[in-house]
Amino acid sequence: MTGEKHTQVVIVGGGQAGLAVGYHLRRQGLDFVILDADPAPGGAWQHMWDSLHLFSPAEHSSLPGRLMPAQTGTPYPDAGHVVDYLTDYEKRYDLPVQHGSRVEAVRRDADQLLVEADSGTWRARAVISATGTWSRPFLPAVPGRGLFIGRQLHTVDYRSPGDFAGQRVVVVGGGNSGAQIAADLALDGHVEVTWVTQRPPRILPDDIDGRALFDVATARRRALDAGRSDTGGIASLGDIVAVPPVRAARDAGLLDAKPMFTRLTADGVQWSNGTHAEADAVIWCTGFRPALAHLAPLGLRGPRGHIPTVGTRAVGEPRLHLLGYGDWTGPASATLIGVGRPARDAARDIAQSLSG
Ligand code: FAD
Description:
- This protein folds into two domains: 5-136 and 288-354, FAD/NAD(P)-binding domain; 151-203 and 239-284, FAD/NAD(P)-binding domain (3-Layer(bba) Sandwich).
- A hairpin with a 2-residue loop joins strand 5 (103-109) and strand 6 (112-117).
- Helix 1 packs across helix 6 (340-355) and helix 3 (176-188) packs across helix 5 (244-251).
- The chain has helices spanning 16-27, 79-92, 176-188, 210-225, 244-251, 340-355; strands at 5-6, 9-12, 32-36, 97-99, 103-109, 112-117, 120-124, 126-129, 151-154, 168-172, 192-197, 257-259, 263-265, 268-270, 276-278, 281-284, 309-310, 313-314, 317-322.
- The strands form four sheets. It has a seven-stranded mixed sheet, with helices on one face. Strands 9-16-10-11-12 form a five-stranded parallel sheet, with helices on one face. Strands 1-7-6-5 form a four-stranded mixed sheet, with no helix packed on it.
- By secondary structure, it is an alpha/beta fold.
- The chain is built from six helices and 19 strands.
- The two termini are 27 Å apart.
- Bound molecules: flavin-adenine dinucleotide.
- The site of flavin-adenine dinucleotide has 35 residues, from helix 1 and strand 3.
């Protein structure tokens, strides 16, 4: 067919995971292209809320080959700093990223994979999917969600407390996003915040930041690799990193969580004992699902919407690798520092397959 382009490897997604594996494919001497739906570099980081800071210091948030520089005035860089770092990374290593190029479908075609993007079609011998989760916000099915006449938002829609001045806001979710957004709103002083969590929130000790979390994840991987019993990993310690705003809100007594309500009403939320709280907005900080719609033609979907993998390689399609997303594609592979190792392994694995 005319207009098709050829390369050895197509990477779908140019966030941190796509860039990290691009770095390693280059070292392997392979020919590749990175197709990224966003018009600008930075992946999900360019869409995060104004006050968001990393939960690890800069030097512990680096991709392979280049340390993230420190940000003046804070050990924990903000999202804008990460966007600058990823923009520089893309340029420095001259990674062939085509921004504004959304992949609609990946199909099998004899011994090649066909990658259909809105910018054109590519033929490749291997595909690495690194599309993250940001574009697939998850909202739980809670009775009355259609009745509520106020605003309903997800983490992906939240920007700053200024958008809610003088309002009553219910924040749902006991993970890092829920705690940080509840803290951000509560510390502002102009928003009446009710924080609601499925189970009592578990804030990690103040001295545990992303560095310690990474060490715990690594120790768990070593234990499992060596056939020892599961150490329980990060989940055994708690769910929420005590970043400075969370600490400040907790210490000011502003982070008292209520249990999950049972339904929404037209003007608020209601608990099982009949208690009702009026609300102008509900912010659902209830997580994400992997963005895998473009892989549907391959028919690989397993339980919980994941595609079964060994390492990063899809069990049902050996020419496909998945990177980022969560621990199921490599320990801590959805973090800046954690994606380097599975990215290196994926690039080596592909180089070996293509040389055969
Ligand atoms: P993304 O950054 O989401 O990039 C995916 C890219 O794929 C995007 O550019 C998108 O445009 C593109 N894409 C999607 N679909 C398609 C398609 N069909 N075709 C083409 N392109 C497509 N990690 C840390 O290390 N430290 C932290 O402190 C930290 N804090 C976090 C705080 C929050 C609130 C969140 C949500 C995450 C945080 N993380 C943190 C986790 C992690 O670093 C991010 O989730 C990271 O963005 C994942 O990178 P990625 O490259 O896998 O996906």
